[in-house]
Amino acid sequence: MTTRALKIPKRLAAAIGLAAALMASSAARAEWRVCNRTGSLLNLAVGASAGADFATEGWWTVTPGSCSTPLHGALKSRFLYVFATDINGADVTRGTVSMCVDSGKFRVVGIGDCWRRGLQAANFVEIDTAEATEWTTFLGEPGK
Q: Taking a C-beta distance cutoff of 8 angstroms, is the pair 41, 64 a contact?
């Protein structure tokens, strides 16, 4: 039995290589990005499933016209939550899901009894990612 090497045309080989590189880079880029389309500096807090409970974390500062990546890797939860304030502390998001935040950098597990735990309650916006592995959220001016 004779073994022959398979000859692949150079263009096809290049196309296969490019496709493999694109698939690898998109898998590596799985994340949740939050982009600021307002004219103000924003401070972000995010919430996501943390096993049997939810966890909130903050703060990320996002300049106008830029994005932040609060979650890296493939998303593990269908629902994500975001709360944003402007530089003056005014709420930019108008959410209905009450979760806990703190005034400095924080990570809090559990969304109940915020005041008893020395935290503040904030109304997060719920985002349904339809079980996507990556997602981008765009924050605009309030009321727009």
A: yes
